[in-house]
Design goal:
Two copies of one chain form a homodimer. By secondary structure, chain A is mainly alpha-helical. Chain A has two domains: 9-70, Orthogonal Bundle (Arc Repressor Mutant, subunit A), CATH 1.10.10.10; 74-130. Helices cover 66% and strands 8% of the residues of chain A. The first copy, chain A, has six helices and three strands, in the order αβααββααα. The first copy, chain A, has helices at 9-21, 26-36, 41-53, 74-89, 94-105, 109-130, and strands at 24-25, 57-60, 67-70. Chain A has a three-stranded antiparallel beta sheet. In chain A, a hairpin with a 6-residue loop joins strand 2 (57-60) and strand 3 (67-70). In chain A, helix 2 (26-36) packs across helix 3 (41-53). The longest helix of chain A has 22 residues, at 109-130. The radius of gyration of chain A is 19 Å and the shape is elongated. In chain A, 29% of the residues are buried. The interface between A and B is large, with 42 and 42 residues. Chain A binds a DNA duplex through helix 1 and helix 3.
Chain lengths: 131, 131
DNA sequence: TGCTATTTACGAATGATTTCGTAGCTAATG
DNA sequence: CATTAGCTACGAAATCATTCGTAAATAGCA
C-alpha cells in the first residue's frame, strides 16, 4: 500500500516544481516559486523540511547544500487526488467529473482526440475481459 | 460574475447533504453527517453559521428552527473545483485529468458510454462553429 | 586566519479551520 | 405557571498550515 498522500496547497506547488525539474536544491525551488509567489527563503526551506518529515520528499544531505527530490510520483498523487474529488464532490461518478471537466475547461481538439483514443483503448480492454 | 466559491473540506460535506436533500434544518444535516463522522451538534451548527456568513448557505429564519439551503449550485461548485484542480495538479491539461480519472477509478460501461456521447456532442458543436 | 555569504535548524507568531462548552431564548408539557 | 427540551448565539480552545526571524554551522575568499 502506498502511503496516504495529502499535500497541502503550498506543498503541491513545490511538488510540481520538483516533478518538472527533477531533484533540486531549496534555492532552485525557491527561485521558481518566487516567480509566481511572494515568500521568503526560509519559508520555502521550512516547507520542504516539513515535507521531508511527512515523507513527501527525499533528501540527499551528503553535501552542505541539500538536494531534495519528490518521494511521491506525480501519477500516484494525481490519482489519489482525483479519486478523492470524485468521491467528495461528484458523488462517486467519474463520468460526471469528466463531463464537468470538459464542459468547464474548453479542451483543445488535440486534447479531445487524446481522450477519444484513450476511450477506445479502454473499450477494447473491456470487451476482452467480457469474452 | 458568480462569487468565488471555495468551500473547505467540512463545508463540502454539508453542501453535499444539502444538494442531495434540499433545504434542511441543522438537526437533519447533523444526523446525516453523524452517520459517517463524529461531531457534536453545535459543531455542525457553527459550521453552517459560518457558511451562511460566507454566503455559501441561505437561511430561512422565519420559524424558531432555521432552515438552510445551499446558496451555490452543485454545478458551479464542481466547475470551480475542477478548474482549480486542472490548474494546480494537472498542469492545465484537462485531458490529463480525464485520463487519470478514468484510469484510476474504473468507470462502468454506462459511464463510458455517457462520456462518449458527450464527446460526440462536443464534436458537433466544434464543427458547426468552424463552418 | 578572519570575514562574508550561504545554508540548515529551530522556535515562535500568525492565520485559518474545526471543535465544543456555555448561556440565553422559546415552545411545548405537566 | 414552572420545568424541560431543543434551538441559536457567542466565545474560545485545539489543531493545522503558513510565514519568518534568529542562531549555528560551513565553505569560500580576501
Amino acid at each position: 500500500m502506498t502511503s496516504k498522500v495529502k499535500p497541502t496547497e503550498s506543498e503541491l506547488e513545490i511538488l510540481n516544481i520538483l516533478w518538472h525539474n527533477g531533484p533540486s536544491t531549496v534555492r532552485k525551488v525557491h527561485e521558481e516559486l518566487a516567480m509566481t509567489k511572494e515568500a521568503g527563503y526560509t519559508t520555502t526551506l521550512k516547507l520542504m523540511q516539513i515535507m521531508h518529515d511527512k515523507k513527501l520528499l527525499k533528501r540527499d544531505a551528503s553535501s552542505k547544500t541539500h538536494v531534495f527530490e519528490a518521494a511521491v510520483s506525480q501519477q500516484q498523487t494525481q490519482g489519489q487526488m482525483i479519486r478523492k474529488m470524485i468521491d467528495t464532490v461528484f458523488n462517486g461518478s467519474a463520468s460526471q467529473l469528466v463531463m464537468q471537466a470538459l464542459g468547464s475547461h474548453k479542451a483543445s481538439k488535440e486534447e479531445l482526440d487524446e481522450i477519444r483514443a484513450y476511450l477506445e483503448g479502454m473499450e477494447k480492454k473491456t470487451k476482452k475481459a467480457k469474452s
